[in-house]
Design brief:
heterodimer; A: about 425 residues; alpha/beta; eight-stranded mixed β-sheet; five-stranded parallel β-sheet; 23 strands; B: about 725 residues; about 30% helix
Chain lengths: ~425, ~725
């Protein structure tokens, strides 16, 4: 390598193989489950590491356990399984063909760091560039060369090409003892031939800036639920301390605003399925760390289906948590970074204006591919979720509907079976 | 393992700068008895990998010890012929990254880890897989939508299926349904259930044998080799099992204030389906077409007196049934009284569609009671959005009753005499299944162990299909309240797990989570005392028993957690690469400095799944902590055999730390009970410690989550403080005198 030209790499693959697009919990599950039946799988992920959204969560509801616990087991199964080929920083360019015989072209962005990397971290010390830490939603920074996360798989550094000074700097190249950095590494295109495809492209948070009355992006102490996960996480921007971004102080009062965009004709008409449980979980973070902090949660309906109801009851048992059925119409920053909410209290039929020190918006889930649909014969609903795809291409997890981890894993396991059926079917 | 061991030490990533590699190599040769010991500045490079590969051939090595980074990284690089035993010694994350360079203590730590790695490589053998002829037939118990889907999907992947349904017809609860709410966009129109098509598909599928009107009489055996006898006399060899035995509706007659059973026009949502099959929606009392219907949501659900959980499907069902009323009689009214309307994801579209109907009124409220008022019923509701207290007069009341899993234990009322002498009836689990389905001839009982509400025990977030009976997977409403769409997805996933179990078993591999593992327990039976600990403690019911109480192994049920190895007081259970002797030898090879050197030694047993990775992360963050700790990872903390604690103190260790996963209701242990069992076991060692004159504070047990790497050094350092306070292990004096 080292040329500027694109290099086509044709990977040996067969029509009996399966392609999984997306390396979050759904894609990871589909890939591992199919491989453990005995099929060869190529798993592609656009980020430099696997784990997707769940790897950015602090805890899972309702057990309040660490997502990395399940991911670790999955990575262990994956690392030792030679039937799975993982390709990161990869995006699908084209899909042609049909069930049993797809040709897929995949673009692989250069990591700049090669397989020699031992994750020793010497490069970080010499890198002069600070960039916003995407993993922490820009609440802190990393160097241009960085390890995506302490539990990352693959456990390799990566260079952010957009901010790296490149060959004009090259300090990392000098310091690396393992010849692991190749600043001239070029983009590659890979041609793959597979029999079936699982689309597990997941979700992204709804852009809270579009909720123009809720002050996100204007008031520093209004954050979103995904940011709150990072704030509460030990490897997050505040080392797990729940504080206001404006002054680093723990909030004495905090409001959770449900359906921030969801169930709203002007934003996301559907229910995002997980935000009620998400906020209840985050209330638990607050109550564990700051038991005296007053918590308000404004909701339309509390949707804690099935056995998750127990978790609602548990959170309702905490002191100082007020559940108010009502829709938050407006948030205004007042003095010292505090916030005033205008809420229609539905149960009492009145308008209330509570003041709090911090607000968490329970923003909803949007399919990752809502704006940039995948090539190939795939059907979507009006929101961009995959509906009944054609035989041979199967949706799984949040690419199909907004849902939680457990249901995503169910989906992904089922999608693995459908993918297997497609590669063994007659004519394939 | 009788054979040659090669030791390869990497000096990269700061290892060579921090420790004396020559001294470490000497340890490998002299103490570790290695035939070859080489070091390389970049072992994971091509050159390093080739060096090892060529040595394997030229030196005819049987075992490789790689002293370098954590075994969690570079797995693909350090990957050899499976007949070579590979041991990774973590001298990067656990040694040089968290201890000062060129320091005597750091050097001693690295040397001890290498000694342990070498002795393990010397003693462990490459497992020989358990291979038997495996049946590739899947048994599906329950012929509702879940069981039918699982059958079709498993057959679609090329497997034979036996589908058993106790009713004379397939279809289960769907037979009772008039229409289904929409599963697909635009989520507006009701759907036919399409049962006839699915039944035909099953009947025409040559891979699916259907047995209706019969039940399982007995299941014996293990994954890959179950012998199933049906009540109709049929006997079948089976590879794996899917339990899809569904739900029963909650007994509405318990809802006294809602009038069910007393007022004829109070019906359940299931009865409403039957009524909807006729040409008009009528009321049972006089058959007259109804003009107003009240739907009472959460009739029993979300109520600790009845069903504490939410049944997930009743909101959508009542919205659907409101349409039954409006569609037949556009001028009719339907009132829905709810606590919260739960229409997750795209189902919100259906909710909105029903709200468009002028005849449908929805309000939050607490239904107080239902009373007869002439030919009509009055529903009194408090705290509604329309007013504090309202009363609505209707022709028919539909109770949105919930779902009870058929794996839920039967509830019986037991008389309890209170302090004041009053007798009260307290509901309790009878210990019998309300709807037995599997009739397993297992030592640990005939059905799947369940958690709260009858949920078949599993890691329901990350690994929802895992039950505590290997090879048996649950799906659909037996597992959790689910609608048809969810049941279909769930059934497809369960079908995958069932065929995967068959394939993994046929290759001699374990199923989740140690899917790479080919080892299994071997029992030295002549020393067995029939104490039954192994047969009782195995979380997966691997062991059966003969009439004398001898354990009988079923290797394909084994999940390789080695909890039995930890449980056995006679230490007769071992795996080829993991045994009481191997771990015991590892800890005994650690050098204990004499008392006057003032270098205590702590032995820490860590769960390899969570605590061990957490320690790696501490290394990655270069957190510095006490170098007197020696860590041995265990497959599960539950595989801890108490003899190791005994051995540790006899060897002269000053303290023992046990670090496992969180246990209790929200357990995180991958083997369900392992960490809890280890804690119980270690509490029982106090007596032995007292006899040895060892203070009980010398053993500490901790629960640690994988992301709590920051707590680990604190646990270490705090424990060292405790040890410093109580002084050295008194045995040391005698040992080293």
């Amino acid at each position: 390598m080292g040329e500027e030209n694109n290099i086509d790499v044709i990977v040996m693959s067969s029509q009996k193989d399966i392609l999984v697009i997306g390396g979050g919990i759904s894609g990871l599950t589909s890939a591992i489950e199919a491989a453990e039946v005995g099929y060869n799988v190529t798993l592609i992920e656009q980020e430099p590491n696997l784990g997707g959204r769940v790897s950015r969560m602090n805890k899972y509801f309702p057990k309040m356990c660490a997502p990395n616990c399940g991911l670790e087991i999955n990575y262990r199964r994956l690392k030792i399984n030679s039937r799975i080929n993982v390709i990161t920083q990869a995006n699908v360019e084209t899909i042609s063909g049909r069930e049993g015989n797809y040709q897929v072209s995949i673009k692989i962005s250069p990591r700049i760091v090669n397989d020699n990397c031992t994750a020793c971290g010497k490069c970080v010390d010499v890198c002069p560039v600070e960039r916003p830490n995407v993993r922490n939603y820009g609440m802190d920074t990393t160097r241009a060369i960085y390890l995506p996360s302490p539990m990352a798989f693959p456990m390799k550094y990566v260079i952010d090409r957009k901010t790296c000074h490149g060959t004009t700097c090259a300090r990392c190249v000098t310091v690396c003892q393992y010849n692991a950095i190749d600043l001239n590494m070029a983009e590659t295109i890979m041609q793959l031939s597979v029999g079936s495809i699982v689309v597990a492209t997941g979700w992204k948070p709804y852009d809270a800036k579009k909720l123009d009355t809720l002050a996100f992006g204007k008031a520093q102490n209004v954050i979103t639920n995904v940011m709150m996960e990072r704030v509460a996480a030990i490897d997050g921007p505040t080392k797990g301390r729940i504080v206001r971004l404006s002054d680093g102080l723990p909030p004495k009062s905090i409001a959770f605003v449900q359906c921030a965009g969801s169930r709203d004709q002007n934003h996301l008409p559907y229910c995002s399925g997980v935000c009620c449980m998400g906020s209840l979980k985050q209330i638990s973070y607050v109550k564990e760390q700051l038991p005296d902090t007053k918590v308000f949660i404004f909701y339309i309906d509390l949707r804690t289906q099935g056995y998750l109801e127990d978790f609602l009851r548990k959170v309702q048992g905490h002191n100082g948590v007020s559940f108010i059925k009502g829709k938050v119409a407006k948030i205004t920053e007042i003095n010292r970074g505090n916030l005033k909410l205008e809420v229609e209290d539905i149960a009492r039929g009145i308008k209330i204006t509570p003041e709090v020190e911090m607000v968490v918006l329970a923003t909803g889930l949007v399919p990752s591919i809502a704006d940039a649909k995948l090539p190939g014969n795939i059907n979507y609903d009006e929101y961009g979720f995959i509906t009944s795809a054609s035989r041979g291409i199967y949706g799984a997890g949040c690419a199909k509907h907004p849902t939680d981890v457990s249901r995503s894993v169910m989906d992904a396991t089922g999608a693995a079976l459908k993918a297997i059926q497609s590669v063994i079917s007659e004519g394939a | 393992m009788a054979g040659k061991v090669g030791v390869y030490i990497c000096s990269g990533c700061g290892i060579g700068d921090a420790i004396d590699i020559n001294k470490l190599s000497a340890v490998a040769i002299e103490d570790g008895k290695s035939a070859v010991c080489k070091s390389n500045a970049f072992l994971c490079n091509k050159e390093g990998v080739e060096l090892i590969n060529s040595d394997i051939k030229s030196e005819r090595l049987n075992s490789i010890v790689i002293a370098a980074c954590s075994p969690r990284v570079k797995v693909d690089v350090f990957h050899y012929d499976p007949q070579i035993f590979l041991e990774r010694v973590n001298i990067r994350e656990h040694v040089v990254w968290c201890h000062p360079a060129n320091n005597e203590d750091t050097q001693m730590l690295a040397e001890d880890y290498l000694r342990m790695g070498c002795i393990r490589a010397n003693k462990a053998e490459v497992p020989v897989p358990y291979m038997e002829k495996v049946s590739k037939t899947v048994l599906v118990v329950g012929g509702g939508i879940t069981g039918m889907t699982a059958s079709i999907e498993a057959a679609g992947a090329g497997y034979e299926v036996c589908l058993v349904e106790k009713e004379p017809v397939l279809g289960g609860m769907l037979n009772k349904m008039y229409r289904l709410y929409p599963k697909t966009p635009p989520y507006r129109d009701l759907e036919e259930h399409g049962l006839e098509t699915s039944i035909k598909e099953i009947r025409n599928n040559s891979r699916i044998r259907v047995f209706t009107g019969t039940e399982v009489e007995k299941i014996e055996g293990a994954p890959g080799m179950y012998d199933v006898i049906l009540k109709n006399g049929e006997s079948i060899r089976i590879g794996s099992i899917i339990q899809a035995t569904g739900f029963r509706p909650y007994d509405a007659s318990r809802l006294v204030n809602l009038g069910y059973g007393k007022l004829r026009d109070v019906i359940t949502n299931l009865q409403m389906e039957e009524i909807a099959k006729s040409s008009k929606i009528y009321r049972p009392s006089d058959g007259k077409e109804v003009k107003s219907v009240a739907f009472i949501q959460c009739a029993g659900q979300r109520d600790r007196e009845h069903l504490a959980y939410c049944s997930s499907i009743c909101c959508m069902t009542s919205l659907k049934q409101a349409l039954y009323v409006i569609d037949r009689s556009p001028e009719a009214n339907a009132y829905i009284f709810y606590k919260d309307i739960r229409t997750p994801a795209q189902y919100e579209d259906f909710y909105k569609r029903v709200q468009e109907e002028p005849g449908v009124f929805l309000t939050k409220g607490d239904v107080k009671n239902v009373t007869q008022d002439g030919s009509k019923l009055t529903v009194e509701v408090n705290n509604t959005l329309l007013g504090e207290e309202i009363a609505v007069s209707v022709d028919l009341v539909v109770l949105a009753t919930g779902l009870v899993s058929n794996s839920q234990p039967e509830t019986i009322k037991t008389e309890v005499i209170g302090e004041n002498g009053n007798v009260t009836l307290v509901p309790q689990d009878s210990g019998r299944y309300a709807e037995p389905a599997l009739y397993l001839n297992y030592r640990q009982g005939p059905e799947l162990p369940t958690l709260k509400y009858g949920l078949p025990d599993s890691h329901f977030i990350c690994f929802p299909y895992e039950t505590r009976r290997t090879g048996i997977y649950t799906a659909g409403c037996v597992r959790q309240p689910s609608d048809t769409a969810a049941c279909i997805d769930d059934a497809t996933g369960a079908a995958l797990k069932a065929i995967q179990c068959i394939e993994q078993t046929s290759r001699g591999h374990a199923v989740h989570p140690r899917t790479w593992d080919q080892s299994y327990p071997d029992l030295y039976m002549s020393r067995c005392t029939q104490c039954r600990r192994c047969t009782e403690e195995c979380p997966f019911g691997m062991y059966d028993e003969d009439e004398k109480g001898n354990p009988l192994t079923n290797p394909t049920r084994c999940r390789r957690c080695a909890i039995c190895l930890g449980a056995c007081p006679e230490r007769i259970i071992s795996f080829k690469d993991y045994s009481v002797d191997i771990i015991g030898s590892m800890l005994k090879t650690i050098e204990i400095p004499s008392e006057d050197q003032k270098k205590p030694r702590i032995l820490a047993f860590l769960c390899e799944n969570d605590a061990y990775p957490a320690m790696d992360i501490a290394g990655l963050h270069r957190v510095q902590y006490n170098p007197w700790i020696r860590v041995i990872p265990l497959r599960c903390l539950g595989s801890l055999n108490l003899i190791w604690i005994n051995d540790a103190f006899n060897k002269g260790f000053d303290g023992v730390l046990l670090i496992g996963c969180v246990h209790g209701d929200d357990y995180q242990c991958h083997y369900i009970k392992g960490s809890e069992l280890a804690e119980i076991r270690s509490s029982k060692i106090q007596e032995t410690l007292n006899r040895l004159m060892i203070e009980s504070e010398r053993v500490e047990v901790h629960q640690l989550q994988i992301d709590e790497w920051n707590r680990l050094p604190i646990i270490f350092d705090n424990f060292i403080e405790v040890i410093n306070r109580i002084g050295p292990n008194p045995i040391k004096r005698f040992l080293l005198a």
